[in-house]
Amino acid sequence: MKILDFAELLRHLRAEQGCSLATLAVDAGLSRSHLSNLEHGRRAPSPEMTVALAKAFGLAGSKERTFVISAGLAHVPEPLRGALRQALREPGQRRS
Fold first, then answer.
1. Alpha carbons 1 and 20: distance in angstroms, whole number
2. Is 86 in a helix, a strand, or coil?
3. Domains of the chain as residue ranges with CATH
4. H or E segment and range at residue 37
5. Is the whole model's pTM more than 0.85, yes or no?
6. Which end of the chain is more exposed for a tag (fewer CB within 10 A), N or C?
7. Under 8 Å between Cβ of 17 and 8
8. What percent of the chain has pLDDT over 70?
9. Which of 47, 48, 45, 46 is nearest to 9 (CA)?
10. Dihedral, 31, 9, 46, 65 alpha carbons, nearest 10
């Protein structure tokens, strides 16, 4: 997977998994309008949103890393990066 901007990657992953905006919003615990704003680049995701979306998509390995990097979290300080890694490893809601 090439590195894309976050909005483009979010739209791509949602289309790839064949889920609606409303379904993904519910799975990630976001409002449909906020998710739409993320997909159109009008808002930037918080670290917590990035984790929730990665879990909702069931991302792992290189796809997970690409997603986190595209969200702009590559330069997050190490203590927060460790917390993000831990949150992504915890069992959560994952798409099947």
1. 22
2. helix
3. 6-89 (1.10.260.40)
4. helix 32-39
5. no
6. C
7. no
8. 72
9. 45
10. 130
